[in-house]
Write a structure and sequence with these properties.
29% helix, six-stranded antiparallel β-sheet, alpha+beta, 10 strands
Length: 171
């Protein structure tokens, strides 16, 4: 009687086909997740710009958002006031600064337009709603790896903030 001591060629080919299919599905899923993360960051930034614009025009001309980066946690939005020289962060009832963490898998490149701000401050003028500081394009890239400051070169989304009108949109 002949005992089977291994796998047949057909069984190996079928196993390899199944593994290739699973790998393809996982790569597609990772791509979808990365797109969703970038869209989430651009949507958050756009929403916060709108909220800041409304707040500035209705009550508080010194209100601002500070876009900042922490080496460990990635980017975050910090809320507060800015008088042209000093940023004062909002604090909650426990005395902790109010911040909104953005996804740590992204890199934001700021391209200055006119009243640009290299300190990350975004502020509107109460009189006409135009941008006081922070006008320009905020390009959102996918970070190449957790330990790498470089981005993969793939532009995921952009938030454009127009200086003269204060209008903003996601591209």
């Amino acid at each position: 009687m002949n005992k089977n001591k291994g796998y047949s060629l057909v069984e190996l080919i079928i196993s390899m086909a199944i593994m290739a299919t699973l790998a393809t599905v996982s790569f597609v899923t990772i791509g979808i997740l990365n797109n969703a993360r970038a869209k989430d960051v651009s949507s958050k930034l756009d929403t916060q710009l709108h909220s800041l614009w409304v707040t500035t025009n209705s009550t508080s001309p010194d209100r601002c958002i500070k876009l900042d980066e922490n080496d460990d946690d990635g980017y975050f939005l910090q809320y507060g006031t800015y008088d042209g020289t000093t940023f004062v962060s909002d604090v909650d009832s426990n005395g902790d600064e109010i911040v909104e963490k953005l996804n740590n898998r992204i890199v934001i490149e700021y391209v200055v337009e006119g009243a640009g701000s290299t300190d990350g401050i975004i502020q509107f003028k109460k009189a006409d709603g135009s941008v006081k500081s922070g006008a320009g394009t905020y390009n959102i890239y996918l970070r190449a790896s957790d330990n790498n400051e470089d981005y993969s070169g793939r532009l995921m989304a952009s938030v454009i903030l127009k200086e003269s009108t204060g209008s903003h949109y996601i591209k």
